[in-house]
TrEMBL record:
The lineage of its organism: Bacteria, Pseudomonadati, Pseudomonadota, Gammaproteobacteria, Enterobacterales. It comes from Escherichia coli. This is Regulatory protein. It comes from the Bacteria.
Length: 195
């Protein structure tokens, strides 16, 4: 059984500072394979991406916790987030994940990509709190995911530190959108708005 709140983006954004300069940068996220948002706690990573995601339909959200280091649990939630973004388009993969009928995470992801080959609209998958993942098998599987994901899919990863996702190659090929703590820090005007 999946916990619905792990698949929901935060929606209480009434009293937050709208980060126009960062939202403008994120508006081109669909041109990148990976959007990586890294900073220590309290910089507003989740709030920023929640603001950016507001109004988007083709988006799946997966909030991690320590228990997601279990491969089967990680797979179930990740596929559920994709299902959320595609309105249930990946039924075979979803069944495989729920019944644990796959040899490895990479074989499950390969099936996912086969099903997503028929999905032609831009698609976004947000994974929040990736720093909680310590399982090397999941890291390796996510490197496979990033290497082979469809062109119309953008993975958005939020983490307190630089994740083990093999991003150097993406950086060289200009397929990585990065926002770090220096960019997330409030400008003077944003600080005045906040306080």
């Amino acid at each position: 059984m999946l916990i619905p709140s792990k698949l929901s983006r935060p929606v209480r954004l009434d009293h937050t500072v709208v980060r126009e300069r960062l939202l403008a940068k994120l508006s081109g996220a669909n041109n990148f394979r990976l959007a990586l948002i890294t900073s220590p706690a309290g910089y507003g990573k989740t709030t920023l991406i929640s603001q950016w995601a507001a109004g988007k339909n083709d988006i799946g959200w997966y909030s991690l916790d320590e228990g997601d280091n279990q491969q089967e649990r990680f797979a179930s939630y990740l596929i559920a987030a994709v299902q959320q973004a595609t309105n249930g388009h990946c039924a075979i993969c979803d069944t495989m994940a729920q019944k644990r009928q796959y040899a490895s995470l990479t074989s499950l992801f390969a099936q996912l990509f086969i099903e997503l080959a028929e999905w032609h609209s831009p698609l976004y998958l947000v994974i929040d709190d990736y720093h909680l993942i310590t399982n090397p098998v999941i890291h390796e599987s996510m490197r496979f995911f990033i290497r082979h994901q469809p062109e119309n899919l953008t993975l958005v990863v939020l983490s307190r530190n630089l994740p083990q996702l093999g991003i150097a190659n993406l950086r060289v090929r200009d397929q990585l959108l990065e926002i770090g703590s220096q960019q997330l820090a409030f400008t003077h005007q944003e600080a005045k708005q906040f306080f």
